[in-house]
């Protein structure tokens, strides 16, 4: 083992408890996100959704996710990251539960809209929370160790879970989406009971959502920023969506292949 790697492991051992909470939260979120990503197209396809219908649903979800992301970050800075994060996780869980119960276009559209609102609310709040939590304990520089290591562990955990999900897909989609909803609920409790509140703004003034939306749309530069964010995040997501449809419908591949490939 190289000296640099030994030093990194030693640095991790000396980190405060907030890092453990952050790591647990990120692993739960990664597993929930990756498993859903490997199953939702399969589920909609099995329920007879057309390519056009899935495209509309995916576009709706991406739009909501992008529009919610920035305002939720501002509200979290002012009213508390843990509070807003917990709300986002609760909404995320509800979206997963509704998706598992959906069988029609309207049901999938509503559940994906709720899911997207939850995902958009959560956004990068865990990362900003841990950066400030480390700063509050005088360990601000440790973010250089914490962020990449936790990201790697959580991504690997999510990939393994996505691959494993195809093995138990025979249990029924509703059960699998219910299990993901439960993981999101557990993550919500981790946020509520394990994370000390911190803020991004020193002055906690009231900010209306309407004012935030106005800030995002009142100048051509801000509209361009929003549009760019939607295009950049949407392109990959839409590709993954239609790639899975092509894999299942045109190549007639087994749904068990989707999890390992997406993961």
Automatic annotation (TrEMBL):
InterPro entries given for it? MFS, MFS_DHA3_Transporter, MFS_dom, MFS_trans_sf
Q: Where are the transmembrane segments?
A: 53-70, 82-99, 105-125, 174-196, 225-246
Q: Where in the cell is it found?
A: Cell membrane
A GO CC annotation given for this chain: plasma membrane
Q: Which SUPFAM superfamilies match?
A: MFS general substrate transporter
Which residues does the UniProt record annotate as the domain Major facilitator superfamily (MFS) profile?
18-263
Keywords, alphabetical: Membrane, Transmembrane, Transmembrane helix, Transport
Q: How does it sit in the membrane?
A: Multi-pass membrane protein
Question: What GO annotations for molecular function exist for this entry?
Answer: transmembrane transporter activity
Per its UniProt record, what Pfam families does this chain match?
MFS_1
Chief location of this protein within or outside the cell: membrane
Protein name according to UniProt: Major facilitator superfamily (MFS) profile domain-containing protein
